[in-house]
């Protein structure tokens, strides 16, 4: 497990521990194109969250494919001015060579079904003009002889309405049309429906027509539904995939259910008959007239009430719901090593039961928290985990190897994650020291630091046959003003450690390993990594949590115990089940976000 003593080149990389960062901390969303939007009523849903994650991955892949870094020579330049000139380039090189490693192809298919983003320029009749970035349609005044034979001209959106959101809704505003010549049909259809007739007249198409106010369900005969509509009106169309129903709105007023048993892959569709007709669609890129957010909220409340009314009597008899929750919490506390807290909680439960019991002769069952033969292992495990959470990776490695010597040998990924975190903590410590320096003479010190850093980087890119050693313990630095030499020394130690880390895993071809190294080594490219956009979050202490839990789970498994508490397993299983139901579509799971149940509730005083 000891790092290789051979000095090898430390690669240069560009991004930052993507797998450890929550989606909301990924800044690539700020660079997305204006065509990407999420309707307000879908925000907060798992589907919207996955859309954002898919967008981030797509942007990252495109950036990787479009970037074309040039390989730099690994030979050390003797020209000081040349070295300083390199520092003026984008802060992603610092004299280190680029390695092109297993980039995600830009054409990678997204598993998350996209939202409609405009009218399709291909899936329409030629007489219809697509305007305003795909949001407007206009029936031109000129038609070919062949088009005059058609009853109307129709168009569909670029993507079908996704059922994973639970409800899908869009609005169409009529911009230009004479009321006495009303001939619009607004609704939805499958991909195979012809575009030569108004939607609703053909099988697998449904629509609300403006000339008579009737609804048409895959046939020429309509049903009385709502008022006619014309110029300046805004007609909304929505599908509740859980109920398999469709509804329409007019100028913000809900007209009620129009169709039932609506199923299949359906596209927003509109049809026109008279030249000059002109409409604009709102797929969620701007606020809606109708309160679709309120409808979505009501639907979520209905589903949540059903969840609350569900019985737990068959989950773990004879425990009732309250007792089951208490047992899960207690097992979680003991599992994670909070034994004294578990004892206090058990005592509180027993006291509460006695206070509510009216018969003094009744035996009150309680929870007994005992020390067992695993108590020593538990205390050691807690100490190791706390060391990681404190950023003291050396101590965690030392006592893991001492008390659980087989864990890191059997869990190479955990060992690798610890080593990477150790490197990040060294950079973090150097950055803290740098930020404690006095401001007087800052410009002079900054220039000197750049020169020193260039010298350090030259050491990194030389493939010298020297043995690099690092201090066994991270220096304890007083929280006072400290010299620039101390910062440089800490930085040199981090570079030497990174060089050893790179050498140890240089032959590992797994993408996750290469990506983690790429992310960690990105820190060394910046003079002030703690404030550098795109990598500063790496230094956040919250990054220690995932590493600590992964090590804790590995130790538990080595002791023949479950790596997760029963409460965690229940949470994970529920998440997977809800994901499966969402992917199938038409399920109440689309309205549920399990993360909402794990958030602390606001107390009302």
TrEMBL record:
B30.2/SPRY domain residues: 97-288
Span of domain CTLH: 377-434
CDD domains assigned to the protein according to its UniProt record, in alphabetical order: SPRY_RanBP9_10
Biased composition (Polar residues): 1-17
InterPro entries, A to Z: B30.2/SPRY (IPR001870), CRA_dom (IPR013144), CTLH/CRA (IPR024964), CTLH_C (IPR006595), LisH (IPR006594), SPRY_dom (IPR003877), SPRY_RanBP9/10 (IPR035782), Ubq-SigPath_Reg (IPR050618)
Top-level lineage group: Eukaryota
Region listing for Disordered, in residue ranges: 1-32, 54-93
PROSITE patterns associated with the record: B302_SPRY, CTLH, LISH
Compositional bias (Low complexity): 67-85
Role summary: Involved in the proteasome-dependent degradation of fructose-1,6-bisphosphatase.
Listed name of the protein: BgTH12-03586
Species for this entry: Blumeria graminis f. sp. triticale
């Amino acid at each position: 497990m000891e790092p290789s003593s051979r000095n090898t080149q430390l690669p240069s990389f560009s991004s930052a521990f993507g797998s450890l960062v929550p989606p909301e901390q990924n800044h690539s969303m700020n660079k997305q194109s204006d065509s990407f939007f999420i309707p307000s009523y879908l925000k907060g849903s798992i589907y919207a969250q996955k859309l954002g994650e898919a967008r981030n991955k797509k942007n990252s892949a495109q950036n990787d494919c479009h970037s074309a870094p040039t390989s730099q020579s690994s030979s050390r330049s003797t020209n000081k001015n040349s070295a300083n000139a390199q520092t003026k380039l984008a802060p992603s090189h610092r004299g280190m060579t680029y390695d092109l490693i297993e980039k995600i192809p830009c054409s990678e298919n997204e598993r998350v079904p996209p939202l409609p983003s405009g009218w399709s320029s291909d899936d329409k009749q030629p007489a219809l003009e697509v305007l305003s970035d795909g949001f407007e349609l206009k029936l031109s005044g000129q038609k070919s002889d062949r088009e005059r034979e058609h009853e109307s001209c129709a168009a569909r959106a670029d993507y079908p309405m996704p059922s994973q959101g639970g409800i899908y809704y869009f609005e169409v505003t009529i911009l230009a049309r004479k009321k006495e010549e009303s001939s619009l049909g607004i609704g939805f259809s499958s991909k195979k429906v012809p575009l030569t007739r108004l939607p609703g007249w053909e099988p697998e198409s449904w629509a609300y027509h403006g000339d008579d106010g009737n609804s048409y369900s895959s046939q020429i005969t309509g049903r009385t539904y709502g008022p006619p509509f014309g110029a300046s009106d805004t007609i909304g169309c929505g599908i509740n995939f859980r109920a398999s129903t469709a509804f329409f709105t007019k100028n913000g007023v809900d007209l009620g259910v129009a169709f039932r048993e609506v199923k299949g892959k359906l596209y927003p569709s509109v049809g026109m008959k008279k030249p000059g007709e002109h409409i604009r669609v709102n797929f969620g890129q701007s606020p809606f007239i109708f309160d679709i957010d309120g409808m979505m909220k009501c639907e979520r409340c209905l589903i949540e009430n059903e969840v609350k009314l569900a019985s737990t009597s068959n989950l773990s008899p004879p425990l009732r719901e309250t007792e089951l929750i208490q047992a899960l919490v207690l097992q979680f506390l003991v599992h994670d090593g909070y034994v004294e807290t578990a004892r206090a909680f058990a005592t509180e439960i027993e006291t509460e039961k006695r206070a509510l019991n009216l018969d003094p002769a009744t035996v009150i069952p309680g929870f007994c928290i005992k020390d067992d033969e695993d108590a020593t292992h538990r205390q050691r495990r807690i100490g190791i985990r706390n060391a990681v959470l404190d950023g003291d990776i050396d101590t965690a490695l030392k006592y893991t190897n001492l008390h659980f010597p087989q864990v890191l040998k059997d869990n190479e990924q955990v060992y690798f994650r610890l080593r990477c975190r150790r490197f990040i903590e060294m950079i973090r410590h150097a950055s803290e020291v740098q930020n404690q320096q006095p401001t007087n003479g800052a410009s002079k010190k900054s220039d000197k630091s750049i020169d020193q850093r260039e010298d350090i980087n030259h050491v990194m890119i030389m493939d010298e046959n020297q043995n690099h050693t690092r201090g066994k313990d991270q220096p304890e630095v007083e929280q006072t003003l400290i010299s620039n030499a101390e910062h440089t020394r800490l930085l040199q130690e981090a570079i030497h450690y990174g060089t050893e880390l790179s050498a140890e895993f240089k032959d590992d071809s797994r993408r996750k390993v290469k990506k983690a190294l790429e992310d960690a080594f990105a820190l060394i490219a910046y003079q002030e990594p703690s404030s550098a956009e795109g990598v500063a979050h790496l230094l956040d202490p919250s990054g220690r949590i995932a590493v600590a839990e992964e090590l804790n789970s590995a130790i538990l498994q080595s002791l023949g115990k479950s790596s997760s508490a029963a409460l965690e397993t229940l949470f994970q299983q529920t998440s997977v089940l809800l994901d499966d139901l969402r992917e199938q579509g038409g399920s109440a799971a689309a309205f549920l976000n399990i993360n909402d149940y794990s958030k602390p509730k606001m107390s009302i005083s």
